[in-house]
Write a structure and sequence with these properties.
homodimer; Rossmann fold; 6-stranded mixed beta sheet; TrpB-like_PALP (chains A, B); pyridoxal phosphate (chains A, B); EC 4.3.1.19 (chains A, B)
């Protein structure tokens, strides 16, 4: 994989995904002790950066494709469903039965068919493979796929340009990380366009497989049975394609607690007027609450998604947030 | 007043205010029965469009100005305070003692001095005049001032360009309306740049002085003693400068209830991942719930601000919102 695939994806995505704003607020700068910029991918179509990878993958399919299938707790599914609808392709989504209602509703709003499964008892890969074969569908994986990584990487092209507009030409770019598709894509884009930036993947505590894998130099799994509010980024292990990219380009991973993710949501509500979901807030949480582990006088945090149920959001607000 | 003053303000504002995105979501389109575009001024610096007018007015002050004073429940004060800080001018804000905590904190965050007053017992104009004279400060009015209107009008220049990018070249532009500064500025900008658009001011029920004044052809006052959650846009009567502009250019005004404003906040949370305050949500509420009074197959709603306390926002979410 290299940046050419990302630049080619950017051409296909032009006019179909949003160039999301890079936001900041002095209150967050004071809290973090350095300038903080937030790449607001929660404002992307479908409410997350996954609209990029979905469009990149679907738009690269050969003519004659009968339909697509995605395996996702929601954000990837919405991205694929939106792209499939725009390309006139049927879309089936295999989704955990306990996925947030907002995410299921979002997928169905794009006209996709949802097949729920029991997270604890069913083998989702086997189920997806069975459905794909029976219906002649092409599986679009959530992160370990070159076109998906290329699509997510277009975020990195925008970060390079927008940071330069703010006078920031290097530093750390914190990215909420599940399987590593977005982190790897951004890392490749920045390597080509703005090599003074370095990606740092950020994960929920207990699901820091990427951080531990980067430290160990090999792909490690999370211990089973962990629990986190960050449903969007709970993956068991780094991707086979994403890990080598991040091993070469990324700095050490970071992990934050659910409480820190909720506090970051409350601060983004108050100071940026953005709605973030827990998994979309971990990078901002690291920017605000892991300052000692960061370098430089400016940091960029990618706010990856904002598909959160109202009751959980209200819970984040009720906890309050530390005042800057 | 004409569009030249707005274009001149746009030059001074360049690089100091954000070109906020024009957002949309198919769920809102389904609910409204037409395409709905939201100009997200809640993402503006300080959380509202008032950063534009504040910057325009302060940047137009003559050299030697000793400081500025604003009379405001919060959003205008934040806009003026930010501009004053950037221009190295002291800023004093005369603010109701019961203004939302988020707004007071925002003003103080920009280094301004807050002078609270009792909404029911004190004459705020007399208080402000006394302070301005004693300290040698220039009063920046919230809406009835040519440079303030010009600054707000830069929103209209952006709407014309962004709507064209979406293939929308005419229709109704719904604007949350207090004294009419933003509505008048946008109306003037659109008259010059995209005359097939028409501004419709939107107010809270019980505070529809602009709608009644437009219907009567003269400036009428609101009945005293009304109550609304839309604190940002509770003005007693249309401005002397803004009313003639809107009388010439605007369509009939619209009014929505607090319950409709809260429902619009919940829908913006869910489908746009935006935080709106009640007064910043009335235009979107009209787009969604006053469809029979609107014309055209697309409507633009200006979401003017997002400075809302967490408890009120949670209340809006708890009420839920109608499903599209």
């Amino acid at each position: 994989m290299n940046a050419d695939l990302i630049r080619a994806a950017a051409v296909r995505l032009d006019g179909h995904v949003r160039r999301t704003p890079l936001l900041s607020d002095p209150a967050l700068d004071r809290l973090a002790g350095r300038r903080v910029f937030v790449k607001a991918e929660c404002l992307q179509h479908t409410g997350s950066f996954k609209a990029r990878g979905g469009w990149a993958a679907v738009s690269a399919l050969p003519a004659g494709t009968r339909g697509v299938l995605a395996l996702s707790s929601g954000n990837h599914a919405q991205g694929v469903a939106r792209a499939a609808a725009a390309h006139g392709l049927p879309c089936t989504v295999v989704m955990p039965a306990d996925a947030p209602a907002a995410k299921r509703a979002g997928v169905e709003g794009w006209g996709a068919t949802v097949v729920p499964y029991d997270r604890a008892r069913e083998d989702r890969e086997a189920l997806a493979a069975r459905i794909a074969e029976a219906r002649g569908l092409v599986l679009i994986p959530p992160f370990d796929h070159p076109e998906v990584i290329a699509g997510q990487g277009t975020t990195g092209l925008e970060i390079a340009a927008q940071a330069a507009e703010e006078g920031v030409t290097g530093g750390e770019v914190l990215v909420c990380c599940g399987g590593g598709g977005l982190s790897a894509g951004i890392a490749l884009a920045l390597e080509a366009e703005a090599p003074a930036f370095r990606v740092r993947p950020v994960e929920p505590a207990g699901f820091d497989d990427m951080a531990r894998s980067l430290a160990a130099g090999e792909r490690l799994c999370n211990a089973p049975g962990g629990v986190s509010l960050c449903d969007a980024i709970l993956t068991p292990r780094p991707g086979a394609l994403t890990f080598p990219v991040l091993r070469r380009l990324a700095g050490p991973g970071l992990a934050v607690t659910d409480a820190e993710a909720l506090a970051a949501m409350a601060l983004a509500f108050r100071h940026l007027r953005l709605v973030l979901e827990p998994g979309g807030a971990v990078a901002l949480a690291a920017a605000l609450f892991r300052g000692a582990a960061l370098e430089g006088d400016a940091v960029i945090a990618v706010a990856t998604g904002g598909n959160v149920d109202a009751d959980l959001f209200a819970r984040a607000l009720a906890r309050g947030a530390p005042s800057p």
